[in-house]
């Protein structure tokens, strides 16, 4: 950093002040005075440098365009030193001629020669063209114009793109020229607000014209993309329509986006591989930029973890520093310099820890394996591994032998250094040894890294065979039934897992070996093929067997070793990391490595390797995650076991098929429980699918799954997946698998019977569907044992009703005897449920028992018995209406009476949901006869105080004569009922009384704005009063009483007198 700052000082010591002057208001002619910035500019500067523009937009509903423009204006970097820093970071020891070749100085010359043109700033995006003059010595070398675009946020350039195709980690001279133009000539740059703001101002016609002109201008480039987007927009359920708004590359960064200078840390490894010394210096710059991130202090002070993306970048940074300090060509002064920097950074208060969850662990450190020990118990920082790696040496004689020579055979050598064939081994803490491989490979020592990787894999294979022999020797007399037991004792080894390790050692070995196995295709001569497949990324790489130099085993190649080391690493029994991030990291590394394995095309040689390794892992004892002595807190093998089954199903013997019980039985409680449950479910599905043709194996796997899958949602998913396997669309049903799916569904029902589960209704419906596919015995079984599977309302409303539906009967194609058997079970279920939960099941029970008079009468009696103390009026009214609809008016009337006894309507409840039921009950009573009406009116008078409801019923009862729908079929008298005689007289008196009470209640809290409604109410009351013989006298008395009691309400009394003349 200091070197870069010294480099910048020589040419721009006063440039910042000059830029501030030029970009602000004009000063005096003497140049000694400058106009003070406006308050808007002062605020815009602070906002532009510190606050994401999305935060500003969320804080205010509308931002005036002048304010937006000034924030956008001040958001571009203002200091040329920063442009120099990120374009020409190098040693300051170069002479003047060398300095002039740096991108920064070349960019300055381009700017001063007027090469920058067409500069436009739209929001937080700057674009322009830079003309590169041709060499005058070559007539064919013409001037070239490059299109440059820059994105920026909070005074930092976040991304750059140039048409020159520069692949360097530093910015090119064209980016420099455009950046300096914006700094030095800011006032001359056309400035526009973000494009989304402009689009908001357009009408529909203008937007359509804008889109069509844009497509027409660039139709060869954007037409396929435009059509794709149009198709997605027209699809209502597409992802693009599920998200609000649309992206705007000119609108600045969001709140969650990283606010850092554009640096491509992925290019660091390429620079190291090219043995470019700038790679390490670039990494220094990146590290210091990361440590300057203000979020680190916020996260630490608030005790919050950093974002996953940020944490991954820090992990990669730590691994890169291990590569840098392990450079075999690194001099001692350089090592001391890096050690000093690493120590300095580690002492920073914001330096991230190696363990992001900040929990102590029993991790094996590099230092403990290299002979040094640390007495400090302080938490390890992200740079601790690099610090320890910087103390490693390459001078070991045997290591030099491994690196400098292709494998040769040695006789009578130390058995720890060579295998039984005399090939060299390298025994070292695996992550440390793999860090050496990564460093060699990253610094361009390809052959050396390959030789060391081969020696390490041979060592791992030898160690694996050793553990297998130990296990077989110790367990010669152990019965096979003891396989897969769970150990509660701590692991004696493998505390530090290779999968999920910070240095990712297994992937390093795999990538190194697989890279040597890439098949380099012959150049294509077909011009069409050349155009279609010109990009390296269009086709995945193809691999072939490359013989290992000096190896006598013809079946061993770099490709077979890559497969073997991946299988050994994935099958290692290792302790689950303690923290959330570490556990997620282990899962991601495992899935990434398995994804690489799945991309391999397995030829017979690789299939043999896969099978051999599977057996070795099964017989590896406690060293293997697939062996015996599995610790309760060891990392689960679900994902890996699923991969083995998918690749090995046809060739597995009984031992490997029994793997299912081992895999499914281990299930401790971890942070990533959801992921593990999902993988466990997928493994179980794979096992069941593989065993569906063998009843014994299928039963074994099914029992294990039922015993050890504890998540109801995952068990349900497993049942659904097995059901799909058992019922293919283009083949007959597989009955064994179908029965397995049914048994899993039964367990899901039992697990969720007494718990709240939002998918319960879906589960019940699915089980009925599955049982229907299984056949009549399954349907009868779930109806006979409903109490252990369903709630009463589920059993009647979904199970029995669905089974008895015409669609199900048609699907089953039953004979008469089978139909009667199912119907009998459904009726028994319905009556049992109605007894247990009459308020929810009685109506369904009556429906299901319609065709059996005895069962129907039993269900009806259950309703009658429960009416007085269990069922409410709404439930009774529903059943009563059902009875009338089925032709049982007298039973409906009896239930209506019971419902009326449980009902109460206050004077102001004129919108109560039961009003329709009350009208229906009175109409039913009226239709049955005068006596029935006389029986219901006392209940009506007692329980209903709403005057409008009573008056409506009163009028309806006089529209026709009672008894027109009597059950005896005889034609009764057609004389209309009188208001002055029973039974309507009692109803009339109750209605008038209700109006009087309601009138006084309304007047108690009436306000002038309700006077009009009150007058209308009195008008309706008067109509009812006049139905009685002395009704006009009673209404007049009501008005006089109102005048006396409420004489203070003069305006209201005036309106009453005006309307009624009283």
TrEMBL record:
Residues 146-183 form the SWIM-type domain. Coiled coil: none annotated. It holds the Pfam family ZSWIM4-8_C. Keywords: Metal-binding, Zinc, Zinc-finger. It comes from the Eukaryota. This is SWIM-type domain-containing protein. It comes from Tegillarca granosa (Malaysian cockle).
């Amino acid at each position: 950093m200091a070197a870069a700052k010294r480099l910048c000082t020589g040419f721009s010591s006063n440039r910042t002040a000059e830029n501030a002057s030029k970009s602000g208001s004009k000063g005096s002619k003497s140049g000694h005075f400058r106009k003070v910035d406006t308050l808007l500019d002062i605020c815009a500067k602070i906002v532009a440098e510190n606050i994401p523009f999305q935060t500003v937009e969320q804080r205010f509903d509308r931002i005036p365009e002048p304010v937006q423009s000034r924030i956008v204006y001040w958001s571009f970097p203002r200091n040329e030193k920063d442009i120099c820093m990120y374009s020409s970071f190098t040693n300051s020891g170069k002479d003047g001629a060398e300095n002039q070749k740096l991108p920064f100085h070349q960019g300055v010359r381009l700017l001063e020669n007027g090469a920058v043109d067409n500069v436009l700033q739209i929001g937080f995006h700057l674009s322009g063209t830079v003309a590169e003059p041709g060499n005058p010595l070559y007539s064919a070398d013409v001037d070239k114009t490059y299109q440059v675009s820059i994105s920026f946020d909070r005074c930092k350039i976040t991304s750059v793109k140039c048409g020159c195709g520069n692949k360097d980690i530093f910015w090119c001279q064209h980016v420099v020229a455009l950046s300096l133009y914006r700094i030095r000539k800011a006032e001359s740059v056309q400035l526009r607000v973000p494009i989304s703001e402009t689009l908001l101002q357009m009408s529909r016609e203008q937007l359509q014209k804008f889109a069509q002109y844009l497509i027409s201008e660039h139709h060869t480039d954007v037409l396929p993309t435009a059509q794709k987007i149009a198709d997605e927009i027209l699809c209502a359920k597409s992802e693009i329509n599920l998200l609000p708004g649309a992206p705007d590359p000119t609108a600045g960064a969001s709140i969650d986006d990283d606010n850092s200078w554009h640096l491509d840390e992925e290019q660091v490894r390429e620079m190291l591989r090219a043995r470019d010394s700038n790679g390490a210096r670039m990494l220094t710059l990146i590290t210091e930029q990361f440590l300057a991130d203000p979020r680190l202090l916020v996260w630490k002070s608030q005790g919050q973890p950093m974002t996953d993306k940020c944490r991954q970048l820090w992990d990669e940074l730590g691994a890169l520093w291990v590569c840098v300090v392990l450079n075999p060509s690194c001099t001692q002064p350089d090592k001391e310099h890096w050690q000093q920097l690493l120590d300095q950074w580690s002492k920073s208060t914001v330096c991230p820890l190696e363990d992001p969850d900040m929990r102590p662990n029993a991790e094996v450190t590099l230092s403990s394996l290299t002979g040094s020990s640390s007495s400090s118990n302080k938490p390890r920082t992200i740079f601790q591994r690099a610090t320890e790696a910087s103390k490693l040496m390459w001078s070991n004689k045997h290591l030099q032998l491994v690196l400098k020579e292709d494998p040769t055979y040695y006789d009578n050598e130390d058995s720890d250094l060579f295998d039984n064939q005399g090939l060299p081994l390298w025994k070292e803490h695996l992550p440390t040894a793999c860090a050496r491989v990564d460093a060699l490979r990253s610094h361009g020592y390809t052959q050396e890294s390959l030789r060391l990787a081969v020696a390490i894999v041979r060592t791992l294979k030898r160690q694996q065979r050793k553990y297998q022999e130990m296990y077989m020797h110790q367990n010669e007399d152990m019965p096979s039934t003891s396989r897969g037991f769970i150990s509660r004792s701590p692991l004696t080894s493998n505390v530090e897992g290779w999968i999920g390790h910070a240095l990712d050692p297994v992937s390093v070995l795999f990538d190194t070996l697989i890279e040597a196995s890439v098949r380099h295709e012959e150049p294509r001569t077909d011009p069409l093929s050349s155009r279609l497949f010109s990009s390296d990324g269009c086709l995945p790489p193809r691999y072939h067997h490359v013989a290992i130099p000096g190896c006598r085993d013809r079946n061993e190649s770099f490709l077979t070793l890559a497969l073997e080391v991946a299988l050994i690493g994935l099958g290692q029994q290792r302790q689950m990391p303690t923290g959330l991030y570490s556990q997620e990291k282990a899962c991601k590394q495992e899935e990434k490595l398995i994804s690489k394995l799945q991309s391999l095309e397995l030829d017979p040689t690789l299939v043999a390797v896969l099978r051999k390794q599977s057996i070795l892992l099964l017989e590896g004892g406690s060293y293997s995650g697939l062996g015996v002595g599995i610790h309760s807190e060891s990392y689960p093998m679900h994902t890996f076991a699923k991969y083995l089954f998918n690749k090995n199903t046809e060739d597995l013997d009984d031992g490997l098929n029994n793997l299912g019980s081992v895999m499914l039985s281990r299930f401790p409680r971890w942070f990533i429980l959801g992921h593990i449950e999902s993988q466990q479910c997928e493994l179980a599905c794979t096992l069941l699918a593989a065993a569906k043709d063998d009843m014994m194996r299928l039963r074994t796997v099914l029992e294990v799954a039922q015993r050890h899958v504890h998540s109801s949602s995952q068990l349900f998913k497993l049942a659904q997946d097995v059901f799909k396997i058992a019922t293919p669309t283009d083949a007959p049903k597989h009955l064994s698998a179908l029965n397995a799916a049914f048994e899993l569904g039964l367990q899901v029902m039992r697990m969720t019977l007494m718990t709240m589960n939002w998918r319960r209704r879906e589960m019940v419906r699915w089980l009925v569907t599955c049982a229907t596919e299984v056949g009549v015995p399954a349907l009868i079984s779930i109806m006979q044992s409903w109490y252990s599977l369903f709630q009463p309302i589920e059993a009647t409303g979904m199970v029995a009703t669905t089974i008895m539906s015409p669609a199900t009967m048609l699907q089953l194609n039953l004979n008469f005897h089978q139909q009667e058997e199912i119907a009998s079970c459904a009726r028994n279920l319905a009556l049992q449920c109605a007894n247990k939960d009459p308020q929810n099941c009685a109506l369904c029970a009556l429906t299901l028992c319609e065709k059996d008079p005895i069962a129907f009468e039993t269900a009806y009696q259950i309703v009658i018995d429960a009416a007085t103390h269990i069922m409410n009026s709404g439930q009774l009214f529903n059943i009563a209406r059902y009875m009338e609809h089925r032709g049982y008016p007298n039973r409906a009337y009896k239930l209506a009476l019971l419902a009326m006894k449980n009902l109460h309507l206050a004077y102001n409840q004129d919108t109560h949901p039961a009003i329709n039921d009350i009208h229906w009950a009175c109409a039913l009573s009226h239709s049955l006869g005068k006596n029935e009406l006389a029986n219901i009116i006392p209940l009506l008078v007692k329980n209903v105080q709403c005057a409008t409801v009573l008056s409506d019923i009163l009028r309806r009862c006089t529209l026709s004569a009672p008894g027109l729908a009597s059950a005896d079929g005889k034609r009764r008298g057609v004389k209309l009922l009188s208001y002055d005689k029973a039974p309507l007289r009692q109803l009339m008196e109750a209605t008038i009384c209700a109006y009087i009470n309601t009138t006084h209640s309304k007047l108690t809290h009436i306000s002038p704005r309700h006077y009009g409604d009150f007058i209308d109410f009195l008008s309706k009351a008067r109509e009812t009063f006049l139905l009685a013989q002395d009704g006009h006298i009673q209404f007049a008395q009501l008005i006089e009483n109102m005048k006396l009691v409420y004489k203070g309400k003069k305006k209201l009394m005036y309106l009453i007198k005006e309307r009624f003349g009283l």
